[in-house]
Design the sequence.
């Protein structure tokens, strides 16, 4: 079963948000998910305590670097997906989790400073791939982007990533109030109040497109997945 790790040495890049969005969309489509919250601030544990979460999602705080490998293995035996939300440092726990990944997602905001940290994360992944003597697939996920306007700086960053053959997800997570509200109110996007949250429908569509693409990357042999059907429906 796929283990998807969210990594970036920079804090505030959107790791926890993109983890929760992916998990809730997988659960919505009927898949079981374990989230290992490896951030010492426990943002996902906190989210899970705000409101009842889908029964298909299991939340576990990753206790230490000494146990992270066993925790990933145990979770993979119980649920169809394992998502690991890592802290914003280059710790041993981060390296161990990356070494077990079927896919590493690197959330990055669209600024030059953030992009440089994303490139640092790519270098870390390549180091662990070399040590493990296997390929570790990875993708940049652009977060908090403007759905209407792409700045000159962001266009330049995208060109630089392409020139350096750094793969990026086609779907970006836009800067939406609904995504931020998940950590204020808890629960899932579909249960937020559209009268209180602006552009909720667009946020839900964005979340489904993102989840569908991630699942397609982890399972390229499948022409159509439940997540792709959900995004198209």
Sequence:
């Amino acid at each position: 079963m796929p283990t998807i790790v969210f990594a970036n040495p920079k804090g505030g890049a959107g790791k926890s948000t993109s983890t929760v969005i992916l998990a809730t969309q997988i659960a919505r489509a009927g898949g079981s998910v374990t989230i290992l919250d490896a951030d010492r601030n426990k943002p996902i544990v906190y989210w899970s305590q705000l409101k009842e979460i889908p029964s298909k999602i299991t939340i576990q705080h990753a206790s230490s670097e000494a146990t992270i490998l066993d925790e990933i293995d145990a979770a993979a035996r119980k649920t169809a997906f394992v998502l690991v939300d890592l802290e914003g440092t280059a710790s041993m726990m981060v390296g161990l989790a990356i070494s077990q990944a079927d896919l590493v997602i690197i959330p990055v905001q669209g600024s030059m400073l953030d992009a440089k940290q994303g490139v640092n994360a790519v270098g870390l992944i390549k180091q662990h791939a070399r040590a493990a003597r296997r390929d570790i697939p990875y993708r940049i996920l652009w977060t908090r982007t403007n759905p209407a306007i792409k700045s000159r700086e962001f266009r330049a960053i995208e060109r630089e990533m392409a020139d350096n053959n750094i793969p990026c997800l086609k779907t970006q997570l836009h800067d939406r109030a609904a995504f931020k509200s998940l950590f204020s109110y808890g629960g899932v996007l579909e249960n937020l109040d559209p009268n209180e949250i602006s552009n909720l429908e667009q946020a839900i569509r964005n979340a489904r497109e993102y989840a569908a693409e991630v699942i397609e990357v982890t399972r390229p042999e499948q022409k159509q997945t439940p997540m792709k059907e959900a995004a198209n429906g």
